[in-house]
Amino acid sequence: MANKHNFDPDCIFCKIADGKIPCLKIYEDEDILAFLDISPSSKGHALVITKEHFANFLVVPHDLLAKAYEVAQKIGQAQVSQLGAKGCNIITNVNEIAGQSVKHFHIHVIPRYDPNDGLELNFKPKMIEKLNLPVLAEEIKKGL
Ligand code: 5GP
Ligand code: ZN
């Protein structure tokens, strides 16, 4: 791993992928690793990472992104079938502004059990009335 493309020796998830730091592994293949979050938001909170270092979701190659989300889907299914979760949140934070603290792409798979669990993961629309949605749609489309 250490000589693989995109390895950052100062990155904690690179060290986990390299086996230098232990983790509670739940899935591994050539490209993807999944393990339990050390500071879980709920019982079974898992993280899915590419073994290769990419700073965030926006720069991950499509083939690896597809593989990572396939693993996230399997883990979500297992949280429901094995842990009794009623659903889950699949979240990836991009940059500090959005809550990303580890600068190595990862997907959170957070099982949900109780509607009153206090987890605030919903982004309520607060400014919709002030926004010109048709103009915004055009702006985004120009970048695709
Ligand atoms: P972020 O805030 O970047 O979206 O998520 C980073 C996640 O990584 C956090 O939920 C945090 O608890 C988890 N985390 C940080 N360091 C470690 C570690 O060394 N081991 C494990 N298993 N999880 C970690
Ligand atoms: Zn890394």
SSE topology sketch:
Blueprint: H1 12-17, E1 25-28, E2 32-36, E3 46-50, H2 62-83, E4 87-91, E5 106-112, H3 133-142
The structure holds guanosine-5'-monophosphate and zinc ion.
Query: Low-confidence parts lasting 5 or more residues at pLDDT below 50?
Result: none
User: What composes the largest sheet?
Assistant: 5 strands, antiparallel
Query: Which architecture per CATH?
Result: 2-Layer Sandwich
What percentage of residues falls in helices of 4 or more residues?
A: 25-40%
Assess the beta-strand content as a share of residues: 15-25%
**CATH class wording:** Alpha Beta
* CATH domain fold name: HIT family, subunit A
The global form is globular
Main sheet: which strands, in order across? 1-2-3-5-4
Can you put this structure into words, describing what you see?
With 144 residues, this protein is α+β, with helices and mostly antiparallel strands. The protein has a single domain, classed as HIT family, subunit A (2-Layer Sandwich). 26% of the residues lie in helices and 18% in strands. The protein is built from three helices and five strands. Strands 1-2-3-5-4 form a five-stranded antiparallel β-sheet, with helices on one face. A hairpin with a 3-residue loop joins strand 1 (25-28) and strand 2 (32-36). The longest helix has 22 residues, at 62-83. The relative contact order is 0.16. The structure holds guanosine-5'-monophosphate and zinc ion. Guanosine-5'-monophosphate is lined by residues 12, 21, 23, 35-39, 47, 93, 99-102. The site of guanosine-5'-monophosphate has 14 residues, from strand 2.
